[in-house]
Write a structure and sequence with these properties.
Length: 166
């Protein structure tokens, strides 16, 4: 079993690969947050063996990981997202030092992944994300419509009041 820890950033991602015995397969390396960077990662993942033998984990950093999630899902690799607070607590329990770098974070993620039950992200992630986006857009449009209806109503009332005052 291989464990891949990925520290997500805006323009790059730091990655670390280890085995269940703690053998370092690949020291921390950097991939770009682009299709070329993801292809580089995919090449490394394919060299490890079947996708079911690879466990990938990263913190949930908001929208920065969206492209990576979609890419991994399309390549049939499962991944697990988790709360950054959990990793901070894990790191605190492992060492008293307060060092924090991306290279250390990605190796911590891989080690943490070994200690927890692996619960991969659902397969239909893309569809869920699309539905969530459409729901938010609909809500925004309804709020805009309500705002303009109020403006229109108030404007009409003021016009009527001016006509009555004449």
């Amino acid at each position: 079993m291989y464990f891949v820890g990925i520290d997500i950033s805006n323009y790059k991602h730091d990655c670390f690969i280890t085995t269940e015995t703690g053998l370092i397969v690949h020291n921390p390396f950097i991939i770009e947050n682009s299709h070329d960077g993801f292809d580089e990662l995919l090449t490394m993942l394919r060299s490890l063996g079947h996708p079911s033998e690879v466990r990938i984990g990263f913190e949930s950093p908001g929208h920065y990981a969206l492209n990576l999630k979609l890419f991994l899902g399309k390549a049939h690799y499962s991944f697990m997202e988790f709360n950054p607070v959990l990793l901070a607590k894990f790191n605190k329990s492992q060492s008293l030092r307060r060092t924090k770098t991306d290279a250390i974070d990605c190796s911590s993620i891989a080690r943490w992944l070994m200690t927890v039950e692996y619960k991969p992200h659902p397969i239909g992630f893309y569809h869920t994300y699309s539905l969530k986006s459409l729901t938010r857009l609909r809500n925004s449009l309804i709020q805009q419509r309500s705002f303009y209806l109020v403006k229109l109503t108030i404007g009409t009332i003021h016009k009527i009041d001016r006509i009555k005052a004449m």
